[in-house]
Write a structure and sequence with these properties.
It holds the Pfam family adh_short_C2. Its EC number is 1.1.1.100. This is 3-oxoacyl-[acyl-carrier protein] reductase. It is an enzyme of class 1 (oxidoreductase). It comes from Phytomonospora endophytica. By secondary structure, the chain is of the alpha/beta class. The chain has one domain (8-183, 212-234): NAD(P)-binding Rossmann-like Domain (Rossmann fold, 3-Layer(aba) Sandwich). It contains eight helices and seven strands, in the order βαβαβαβαβαβαααβ. It has helices spanning 17-28, 41-51, 63-77, 101-125, 148-168, 186-191, 194-202, 212-223; strands at residues 8-11, 32-37, 54-57, 80-85, 126-135, 174-180, 234-237. Strands 3-2-1-4-5-6-7 form a seven-stranded parallel β-sheet, with helices on both faces. Strand 4 (80-85), helix 4 (101-125) and strand 5 (126-135) form a beta-alpha-beta unit. Helix 1 crosses helix 8 (212-223), helix 3 runs parallel beside helix 4 (101-125) and helix 4 runs parallel beside helix 5 (148-168). It is globular and about 45 Å long.
Amino acid sequence: MKPLKGKTALVTGGSRGIGRAITERLTADGARVAFGYHRSKDEAMAVAAATGAHPVRADLAVHGDVLDLVAQADETLGGLDALVNNAGIWLPHGRFDDADEASYDEVMAVNAKSTFFAIHHASARMRDGGRVVNLSSIATGRPTPGNAVYAASKAAVEQFTAIAAQELGPRGITVNCVAPGAVDTALLRRSLPPQLLARTARNTSFGRLGAGDDIAGIVAFLLGPDAAWITGQTITAAGGLL
């Protein structure tokens, strides 16, 4: 029997990278899925055709779009059992001597604010016993020049996770977080030069970058019945990256 058969899930940023792998895994495990996308319409339609998941366009930097995404997912799926806050961005001008206010605001809006309000809106509609999984990053524990805004936005996600787990626990809803390491996505390749990517791969226990499926499997486990006693946790998934 498929572990998520009969369950419904909303995945933000579900058309590319880790989000696409999560959408594919959850549908393969029997869940009915709605997923958000922003600019990648062609990729979203391809994911929908391959998985049967329902795409919804949303700009997560806009609060109204977050509410609309949750509402459309709830209506389309006939209720929500799970929310996966996967969408995230990294932008340049993150150094203190090269700060850009617009970039700061956009990273915080997409990575932190949308996560907070997606939990706010989805939990109000979610059935008791539901699941929330947020995506963070190992950047929260690795001080790196130029990464202050991104790391801070993801640190906020980890705090939202810990506190939401306490607030939603009385309804049997678990809230957990996965903090990936270096996963081979377009976002990572835009963020790091090729020589640093190669060095990062060598520094994992397996001598490679992570893949979307490596993270999707952990998310699927946390949404499933065997993870009912796990909540408020941030799980590092970095392949032993040193």
